[in-house]
Every structure is written in C-alpha cells, then in structure tokens.
Amino acid sequence: MKRILIQDTDGNKKKDLRDFAVALTSQLRERNLDGQCQVVTVADLGVYNKGLAARVLPEGFIYKNLEIKNITEIIDKTIIAGQKIDALAFDKKSKQMRVVLRNCGVVDPESFDEYVGNDGYQGLVRALEMGPEQAIAEMKKSGLRGRGGAGFPTWLKWDITRKVSGDVKYIICNGDEGDPGAYMDRSVLEGDPHSVIEGMMIGGFAVGATYGFFYIRAEYPLAVERIQKAINKCYEKGLLGKNILGSNFNFDMEIRLGAGAFVCGEETALIASVEGLRGYPRPRPPFPSVKGLWDKPTVINNVETLANIPYIFAKGGEEFGKIGTEGSKGTKVFAVTGKVRNSGLVEVPMGITLREIVFDIGGGVFENKAIKAIQTGGPSGGVIPEQYFDTPVEYESLQKLGSIMGSGGMIVMDEDDCMVDISKFYLGFCVDESCGKCAPCRIGGTQMLGILTRISEGKGKADDLNKLNQIALAMQKASLCGLGQTAPNPVLSTLKYFAEEYRAHVEDGKCPSGKCASLVSFLIHKDKCTGCGLCARNCPVNVIAGSRQEKYVIDQEKCISCGMCYQVCKFDAVERQ
Amino acid sequence: MGIVKQDLLNMKTVAVNKRAKNWIRVGYSTCGVAAGAKEVLEVLTEEAKTRGLDVEVKKCGCLGLCSAEPLVEVNVEGAPRVFYGKVNKDVAHKIMDEHVCQKKLVDGHIYEI
To answer: Please, what are the domains in chain A?
Structure first.
C-alpha cells in the first residue's frame, strides 16, 4: 500500500492544503486507486517554506511547491509506476547526527539488557584491554573537548590527573546543568543513563580513580531515579565493585544531589558541595586535577562529555575524530528554544552553521516575524546577531563573536525581543546566583543591573553605556570564578552588536521592539476596531472597556503595557507607540 | 564474581534475539511525562492487552522534538514506521485502532524527525 503524506510547510495555506487533499482523494477514487493509496495530512515533514509538500511512501520521495495540477502526474508516475518526478523533487538531507543521543529515544532507559544489546559496555571492555595509558592515547586521537562550555581537551585533563601521584583519586560527573533554556544533560541522564555510567567508569580507569560521584541537581528527580536504578543494576551484575569484568579494576559510584545553586556548576564550588560544605568557589590553581575532592586529584567531566566516551572506545578514537572540524571534533547537542518553530534537542556535527541549525532543523521563526539573533552559552555566553549566522559551530569561532559554545543552550530571538531586556534578564540571573564571596561579582553585577533597569525605564544617562563597559571589564578581570568572569558577556555582546538599541532607550526614551513596558503604550484605533471585544477578554488587568457599538478603549492610567491586546487583535486596531 | 567479557557478549545476543518485531515506543523523559505521556502509555498498554495484539509497548528516553511531546514511535508490520507527536488519549486509541489494527496512518499527528 502506498501512502502520500501531505503538509502545508509555509504554515499559512490551510485552505490550499484542504483543496489539494480533496482533489487528490477524488482523483484516486475515480481511478479506483483509493484502496491502494492512503492520503494522510501530517503535522511536520521536516521541510520548511516549500509550499505544499508531500512525501510518498514507501519510496520516500519528497515533492515541494505542489499545486492541484500536479496531481495527475504524481498519480501516473509515482503512485502507479513508482518513479521520481525530478522537477518536483526536493532532496532533504538530515543535518543531525546522533552520537551522544544515540540511544535516547531508542532504548528503554531502565533496561540494562537493552543497553547491552546496543553495544553497551563494549567501550569499557576495550578500555580495560588497552590499559590506562593507551586509553588516554585513544582519547587524544579522538580530539574530544569538554562539553561543559570551556572546551578543555578531555585527554589532557585525564593525563594530568593520571600523572599526579596520590593514593586515592576521584572522578565526578558534573550534572549541575543550570543555564536557562538548557536541558541536554537532563535528557541524556534520563534517556541513556548507562552510557554516562560507562563513560565515567572508563574515565575512572584511565586516571586511576576508584570512586565516582554523580553530582545531579535535585530539580531532576527522574534523572536521579534512573541513574540510581542503573547504578544498582551495575552492582547487581558485578559491573561495579571489585575486579570489574575480571580485571583488577575496582570502582564504586554514588549520587550527590545539588541543592539548586547555579555556582555549583563551577568545579571548585561543586567540589565544596560534594564535600558537604557550602558551595563556594575557591581560587585556582591548584586545579582540581591536582588538589580536588578532599584534596585528592579529581577529574570533573560534564554529562555530555562522558556520554561521548563509550562511543569513542567502541568505534575507535580515529573514527570519532573524523566527525567535526580540525579544532572541534565530534558532535554537539543543543537545546534550541525561544522563538523557533520546533523547539527541542538537536545533535549536529561540529562545523555546521548556526543558520542550518535554526532554519533547516529548527524550522525558522514563526510566520511574519523577522529573526534577530540567537543567544548561546547561557548567562556566560553572548548574543549572536543574524548577520553572523553563517559562522560554523566551533569553540573558537563562537568565542571570536563574543559568545561561547557553552553547555548547549540556544535561544532564538525575533524582532519582538529587546536586547536591553535580554541582557537585563541574564545579568539578573547571575546577580541572583552570585554567591557573594568576591566583590567584583557581588557589587559589579548589582551595579550593572541597576544601570540596565534604569535604561529600560527610559531614565538612562548619557554616560551609562561607558559605565556598563567599564564595570563589565572589571568583573571579567577580577572575579574569582567563572560565574563572575563571564556574567557580563551577554551585556557586552549586546552592546557590541545592538548599540543602537541601547542608544534609542537612552537618548530617545524609546524601545524599538516594544518590550520595555515603561517605554511603550497601546492605543485602540476606533476606525479599525470592530468591537469584537477579544482584547478586553484577554486583558490580564481588565482595563479595556467598550461595546460593539462604541468600540473599545484602554484605560491608560491602569494599563500595564503587557501588549496582550496588541498580540490578540485580528484587525490591527491596536497600535504600539 | 561479576560478569566477564564473554558474559556481556552472550547478554547482547540474548537481548538482540529478544527484540520484538512489532513495537510502540513512548518518549518517557521529563518533557514527555509533563506533556501527558503517562496517560498515553497507559492507554496503549491497556489496549494492546485487551485486544490481545502482538505489539510490545515500552518506554524510551527523549527523542528531541520536545515541542511535539508526547511522542510515540510505531513500528508494526504492514505499515511504515512513523513518529506521532502531540499524542493524547484519543490519538492513542486511534493509533491502536487505525495504525496497528487497520494498518492505516493516523491523520494530523505524524512528525518526521
């Protein structure tokens, strides 16, 4: 049986799609083919802005920009003869590549057997056969760099820890994922817990650690539950404990819960937290590789980094090194959120452009909106404007743009997002999460936030932009840990790329995006208003009054400028000033 | 004494042989559960049992398309393997009724990933 899956990929041709479906069905019926071919409207073909599109199964051809006049040809050539019509065809290549997420959505996360059935723990077998030095050499070949954000070569971290002498060594999995909009690690922990455990065991073996800690935020109860079940299963099977897989490698593992402080994702604060102390960072050096948990040499790897490791050992470092670019190997998982059609997780090979991620995979922004920028790297990252979307995704190239790869949050922003508001949000986040230990972060952050708030209220002073720059540079230089050093990044990058928007706030008292509530007002035009009352029903503070005859009016005194009436009005009767 | 390399390989063979021919996977991470995957899983499991169908219904992790959760992947003989998104109780019934039993794809919920 054949199937034709059809979809309106523009998102605004509902009626055309219906007509097309009706015409197609009736032609099939006329030719007595309706029993052999099913017509299905689908939600998403993974093709965007190509008009009416269809996929024909089982052949898998995709046709784009279809019209009713194409139907006869499709039935003749494809449905009956099984041939591809080149003039209509669209070649869709999947831009995603699944390495870290290879088992997510495939195996039952609570089943040990299914993980083993998908080559689980084969990487560990290989690592144990190689011995620690060879294992680190294999990691060097792979070129894997830390996925927590900074991109430090994983093999080097392991090598340093291995060479430090010490009776006891530790390995910690950093699962304190705290960036707004980022949830890659949660998905891996929940969807494929055994791969992270296997990665940690290989790491522990390579550096000579005998004990591993999972540091997971308490806000991830399902992740904690699944990791715990997986650990229990490993003990039951004898994969954890003494003489693992018949070797002389002994390894134990337990979970520690994070209490929700963002700073505990920073490695020295994380160590303090695991020790049971308050999550305060301390100056480095000495680095944790030398003096970490309970002053013993400690390796800290991010969840995604560890999930890569079983793959590297199962397939070989060289094979892994073929993915990605010269300096950035492998794949990266991004959590694409914000003003994008398909929000969710994507895994792409390094070197793909930002544009491909946002448009080809994410489906672009919603209709009638212009994309403005994306934010990567969370509160430590920056904003990348649309003109740089052709930049390849690599550690260095994103850094050059004033952002970072970060842990993988990617927030898409359109014309309705105000950059002053965005930087205020991120800075506010860091001010809330600052532990308060060092002055540049504690005081600098608060001062900058004060200035940004002033600007967003239209009370900015001429000197404010300079001041922001000055304080930001001081914070970057003098803060104790990564949180304070990187907290000004969103402000600096928006200042760099969207200086005009800032100036409009300061000099003209205007918010070009209409986001800053103190700077906009809304007005209903009587001549355009149809009196439908939709705005009044949606107003959260009930300050729109009127009737079908008299039309509607906003009480400006009480209006909170939320913009709800502007969004819901179907007749463009609400004006934003 | 724990398992050794050969045991792992044996377990792998057993697991591969045990794989069901017809299966339905329900994305069951936090994103899926928050969107209502629990109810969907219950309906599918219940239907498979009461109708006595030869199809294994099971949980899996997040497939990535979080905006379309709860996601359900269906692979049964006689129909193409597809993902259904934004599945609720009603759609779950339809999947069993139309896709699994009648081998017809369900309208309006297919997502390609």
So the answer is: 2-80 (3.40.30.10), 112-321 (3.40.50.11540), 331-414 (3.10.20.600), 419-507 (1.20.1440.230), 521-576 (3.30.70.20)
With CB atoms and an 8 Å threshold, state whether B2 touches A239: yes
Q: Are B25 and B48 in contact (CB under 8 A)?
A: no
Within 8 A of A55 by CB-CB distance, chain B residues are 112
Token pair of A395 as six digits: 């550690």
C-alpha A451 chain-centroid distance? 29
Asked whether the beta carbons of A249 and A205 are under 8 A apart, the reply is: yes
Q: Which CATH superfamily is domain B21-111 in?
A: Glutaredoxin (3.40.30.10)
User: What is the end-to-end Cα distance of chain B in Å, rounded?
Assistant: 44
Residue with tokens 């959760």: B69
Give the mean pLDDT per block of 10 residues along chain A (577 residues). 87 85 88 86 86 87 88 85 84 86 91 91 93 94 88 93 92 91 91 95 95 93 94 93 92 92 90 92 90 93 94 93 92 92 90 92 83 90 92 91 87 91 92 92 94 91 92 94 91 93 90 84 88 91 89 89 87 86
Chain A, 21 to 50: residues with Cβ < 8 Å from chain B are 38, 40-46
Cα distance between the two ends of chain A: 57
Specify the 3-state DSSP secondary structure of A54: strand
